[in-house]
Amino acid sequence: MRQAVGDPPGRRIREGVRLLAKMQICDWADLDARCQSVVTGVRQGRRVAAPPVLLATPATAADQLTCARAYSAARFPAASPPVWEGTRYRHDKIKVAYISSDFREHPVSYLLAGLIERHDGRGLQPWPSLCEPTTTVKCAAA
């Protein structure tokens, strides 16, 4: 078992994978010590297991949350800063965008035309946008 999974210390989530593999093959030797080692690692802020592994250990809900936050932060980092940073813009009218790739000879465009014509011009400003159906999305204001 040690040779199949490896035993280098400090490897990310490998300790949890090893614990889960030992449980699946019914190798109960040192089970309590291995469970405690995984839980201790999570409490120390190390990524020693994927979140589902903790469900098979005597971890608390707080331990599970800590593990899930650390795992998801490392696995799915923020791609970019948020587009909206809290700045409020004041306009006379609310802009309503209609985004579709069907603003041509298509039933959607005929049905939507009546909706846009019925907008109250005092409070709303309709803003139809055409997205061309290609492999990359290209949008242009109509």
Describe what you observe in this structure.
- The structure is a single chain.
- By secondary structure, the chain is α+β, with helices and mostly antiparallel strands.
- It folds into two domains: 2-75, no CATH class; 94-141, no CATH class.
- 38% of the residues lie in helices and 14% in strands.
- It has helices at residues 2-5, 14-24, 31-43, 61-75, 107-117; strands spanning 94-100, 124-132, 138-141.
- Strands 1-2-3 form a three-stranded mixed sheet, with no helix packed on it.
- Strand 1 (94-100), helix 5 (107-117) and strand 2 (124-132) form a beta-alpha-beta unit.
- The model is unreliable at 1-10 (pLDDT under 50).
* Strand order in the sheet with the most strands: 1-2-3
The strand count comes to 3
Order of helices and strands: HHHHEHEE
Sheet with most strands: 3 strands, mixed
Distance between the termini: 63 Å
Helix content: 25-40%
Mean pLDDT: 80
Note the overall shape.
elongated
User: How many structural domains does the protein architecture include?
Assistant: 2
How much beta, percentage-wise?
Answer: 5-15%
Structural class given helices, strands, pairing? alpha+beta
| Poorly predicted sequence stretches spanning 5 or more consecutive residues | 1-10
